[in-house]
Amino acid sequence: MAFGAIEILALILIVLSVVKMLTLLVKPQSWFNFTKKMMIKPKVLSGVSLVLAAVVLYFLVTAGVGIVQILAVMLFMALFILVGLAQYIPAMLKKINPKTAMKEQWFYALLWLALLVWGVVVLFF
What we know:
Elements: H1 5-26, H2 28-39, H3 42-62, H4 67-85, H5 89-94, H6 101-104, H7 106-124
């Protein structure tokens, strides 16, 4: 089977997920140590994640996946991630200041808005 961009992206997710799960089963503390190291500089992590997200979006769009399909999959993933995070949300909400949340997340919110507008344009225009 010849692998295209979508298959390669799926394989990357599969390999990283299996490595994470096996590490959590065999040596969970090493996974948490790795995670802590990644979280030391949240702005760097956000920047790297943004660049990787842009690269993945580019490959998906050039492979013929439309923004509407991408948004639908994002809904699935958001709900799926919520299953695992639901128990931690009350503690997370205690750390968020509602008065400054949008000021702190303006760039992220702007990117979301751009994706949503793109989806609306494709759906209705």
